[in-house]
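hiii so my PI (J.) wants the whole complex modelled not just the main chain, which honestly fair. so below is everything: three entries, each one labled with what it is. i double checked the lines twice but i was tired so who knows lol
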Amino acid sequence: MSLGLAHFLVLSGVIFAIGVIGVIIRRNAIIILMSIELMLNAVNIALVAFSVYMRNMDGQVFVFFIITVAAAEAAVGLALAVVISRNRKSVDVDDFNLMKW
Amino acid sequence: MIQIPNINISIIYPEIIIFITAVIILLVEIFSNGKKWYAQSIIALIGIIVSGYAVSNQWNSFASGFSEVLVADNFALMFKLIFLLGALLTVFLSIWYFRREEIQQGEYFFLILSSVIGMMILSSANELITAFLGLEVMSLPLYVLAGFDKKKLLSNEAALKYFIMGAFASGFLVYGITFIYGATGTTNFDKISMVISSRSFGIDPLLLLGFILILIGFSFKTAFVPFHSWVPDVYTGAPTPVTAFFSIGPKAAGFAILFRLIIKAFAPIGGSIIPILWILAVLTMTVGNLIALTQRNIKRMLAYSSIAHAGYLLISLVVGNGRGASAALFYLIAYTVMTVGAFGIVILLGEKGEKDLSINGYSGLAYRYPAAAVVMSLFMFSLAGIPPTAGFIGKFYIFSSAISKGFIWLAVIGIVNSVISVYYYLRVVVVMFMKPEIQAGRVVCFPVSLMVAIILAAIGVLQIGMFPQGWFEAVRYSLIGLF
Amino acid sequence: MLRIYFPILVLLAFAVITPLVMLIIPKILGKRESTPVKDAAYECGIPAKGDARERFPIKFYLIAILFLLFDIEAIFLYPWAYIYRKLGIFGLIEMGVFVFILLVGYLYVIKKGALRWQ
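here's the output for the full assembly
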């Protein structure tokens, strides 16, 4: 038995699902941010797998951009968390109930 | 030596102009200790106008560059003009608003302009990776803009919600792009379409899954039901000019890329996509309008109404031919001016901190400020689609395009929905003209920049509504080469 | 084909067994006796100050965010450096534009005082 495309896709699917579930059920903004990063990294695995499987470099170029975008998103998310924790001393999403969710 | 692909840098001149303007604003900000709000706003306006001139210079050039990654056909250029118009009016709305709220930070204009760059890239993207990058360049500044009033908890909350929803949607979007790439081996729209139509056997499930994930991603951004839950909170919490920008810019950009995807990349599997879009259109219109009926806060009401308008625009996406696309472009132009106008009046009538935004707070406004009440009524009539305003012509154009392609039921549902919407738009008018004044102390001053935005919007609504012929021609020319 | 991963398996086995052995042997040989010094947190040999679960000042977050942003941009330098000679002057100009944009961001960070530590 060898490692084929399907293995990588299943791995990527599982990680993506963990990320989605994390965003939906966790209530801490930082953990939600981490779950989103997990989703993007799952995508990276799938992209690299497709790219190697098809011998086409486009997928790996895309991975570079996704890594950069993920970093930018993390920076914005952390910055928002900092602003909020300054104002409220908490980054729990459930505490944000000024308006109904 | 590596063969350097044909770059053709001239097709991103408009983006470069906006970028340089944004950098100049940032440099002015850091070298003047942030005391140059008016100068920065004027730089932003000049940049937007020069960029608009560069866009209009490219008209009918049909250039493409960066090895076919970006195209500058008339369709993309028309969208770019819509974004620039939206940004121009938003800057006019902002100048006085942020002075009143005492948050005059020049970074605001930088963020607006960076977001516009993203939208412009998105509208001319001919390739999925570029579309993703454009989307992110558009979205990241928007997250910050939603929380720009950083001392205010509502604004913080709006930013966090928007960020979580936006980043979540981006995750779905890139996963969808990955599947498309896996199924076809390319990310270029033309090649995707070629690969799909060269296969004789049915539809690849991977491809359909990819398309649905991409659609979910863009549905979050353009706020289609059932991916709309963030809209009312974010629209209410964000500073009002930013809310106006949210409801015009990202929405138009989302439709630009969805049109290009459906007309070009996924045209061969159009038959299995249309039912999905049909359901989305009906849900978006109906849910948006029904919830808007119950709203008491003007910003929340406008938020739900913007969801409903996305539903009308989805009808044109279902139609999917040249007539649908031109109807969508026409509607987006009309929607931009009337939304900016309505938010302009909301800003004009608000006081510092905007503690009271209830519709009932406008009681008896017509007696104290008749001009403001009349102009607000004009925008409400237009949003409701009552002649002789721009909104009426836009809706008429969309519904007639649906009927001409045989989507009778869709058109009927759309018309029923716009009848429902008349109720909540006219309630604002009724409150202003027929109720006695309850808030005696509401004092309004009329700042020049805000008046410019409102008057421009009002003229636009009437001009498009009464003399739509020239606009019809313009949107028809913008579809050359697309079909 | 999985045989090529065998060395990794061996390494993994070592990585698991070694610490286990190192934990188990003292359990068997040594005598258990707790003193205040032994229980204290180890902080490079000097006496520990306060609890390890302290809240970090928010300044650290800011520095971390900035590090993240500027660090990630370096990934675009690697592929460029790899084919630098083949790209020639064109690649140099492109990278110059890229670095210039980063520089504007850096200038902004410095001027806004985000790196000032007080």
